[in-house]
Amino acid sequence: MFVLKGTLEVVIGPMYSGKTEELIRRVMRRKIARQNGIIFRVSSDTRNAEELVVSRAGTHLEAKIVSGARDAQMYLDDKLDYVAFDEIQFFESDLVDVVKKFIDAGTDVIVAGLNLDFRSEPFDNVMKIAAMADEIALLKAVCVVCGKDATLTQRLIMKDGEWVPASTKDPIFKVEGSDVKVRYEPRCKDCWKVGE
Ligand SMILES: [Zn+2]
Fold first, then answer.
1. How many angstroms does the Cα of residue 187 sit away from the middle of ligand 1?
2. Alpha carbon 68 to chain centroid distance?
3. What is the helix (H) or strand (E) element at residue 156, kind and residue range?
4. Separation of 153 CA from ligand 1 center, angstroms?
5. Three-state SS at 111
């Protein structure tokens, strides 16, 4: 039998741009329409350990915590109306293939993630998924320095009692257990700085 393919909605932007809030809003609309689906979050996303997605504004929905995209793939045969993936930059590259499989199976896919890392380099899996999108929402935050629209994420590290821009040689994700104090801010192109 011919199965209609699913659609792909991509929500991207810097930190503090309300991506999770937007993902929750989109899923809520589907819940009102009595659609069945699951939100997936990867376990290395340690912002909240509970089985929830929580936006910075405090809204939340139940989520399934998985160790990777392959765990989500187990729900492929469930013929869900939609699946959603939050913080997709934390997933491995196999997420691209899993997203394709859900779409081919007729399940709509909604994803949210960072457009660029702190070095202002794209996340490979995010860009590959964005390239397949039926719809992309690029969210903007507010630059904490000048108040203009912010599309970039500034990483700052504590050095000699002062917050300074992180080096591009630092790991893309903060290393757990390292004693380097790290902080992130949304910034515009003019205010975004990279350290040595
Ligand atoms: Zn600025």
1. 5
2. 14
3. strand 152-159
4. 11
5. strand
CA 53 / ligand 1 centre spacing (Å): 29
Point out the residues that are catalytic. 87
Ligand 1 center–CA 146 separation, angstroms: 4
Sign of CA dihedral 123, 125, 128, 130: negative
Which phi and psi (to 5°) does residue 5 adopt?
A: -75, 155
The structural domains of the chain, ordered by start, are 8-139 (3.40.50.300), 142-187 (3.30.60.20)
Report yes or no: 53 and 39 within 8 Å, Cβ to Cβ: yes
pLDDT at 3 over 80: no
96: which 2 tokens?
A: 């691209």
Chain segment 93-135, per-residue pLDDT in tens: 999 999 999 999 999 999 999 999 999 999 999 999 999 999 9
Which residues face 112 on adjacent strands? 11
Distance of CA 148 to the CA centre of its chain: 22
In single-letter form, the type of residue at position 128 comes to K
Q: Which two tokens stand for residue 7?
A: 């659609």
